[in-house]
């Protein structure tokens, strides 16, 4: 386990070291894990570029709105399906389960987004994955495990289904909601393929698409209005790229510890019950 941890940690530490290195220091192999001179030029350059700040903003918007829609659609549908008195419940479950076995594919999905007028909109990245069969089934199992007496007591007090869901069920469902919320959040934050397919405007790029432009294509100077000259960005090339990777990781790494206790509780939800 220690060896495996080192295999994971050392490359990450190297990325951090390069992001704080000076111009051209990492290219010459002058250090391994500790740079000779600490420099913040890579971070300063990124935070001064409109394109990188815009990509971070785009990703935050997609993550916040997408995660909220994911949890809303998943929780409401799963709650309805958890009630045995729901008409057509079995047929709906079969339809949902069918989506786990078959999917339309890339070209039909693209044509659908085009016909709906969703190309070059963030809704093309959010709406197709508003929920999924696995999430619905796990949440449904969790809701079914809650005592029915709670629902009955709330109905006696005059609460409707929406009030029961909001005031009774969801407060008791924090483990499963936090677990899937974290999964949805990470998925939206790492959105790449959908953004490449559906977004042709560079101003709408997510941070992952911009990282691909910087690392794969090899473009370090990403600003339209250069705050540094070409020579400087060439010297800081690797430092800028690694700094971009670190900045793009910070939000998820920061949020995860606060949700970890719920994630540990909710990761096994539905593993025993049908």
From TrEMBL:
It is a multi-pass membrane protein. It is found in: Cell membrane. The keyword GTP-binding does not apply. The keyword Transmembrane applies. The chain crosses the membrane at residues 60-81, 93-111, 123-143, 164-185, 242-259. Keywords: Cell membrane, Membrane, Transmembrane, Transmembrane helix, Transport. Its main location: membrane. It comes from the Bacteria. Residues 56-257 form the ABC transmembrane type-1 domain. Pfam families: BPD_transp_1 (PF00528). InterPro entries: MetI-like, MetI-like_sf. Belongs to the binding-protein-dependent transport system permease family. This is ABC transporter permease subunit. It comes from Paenibacillus germinis.
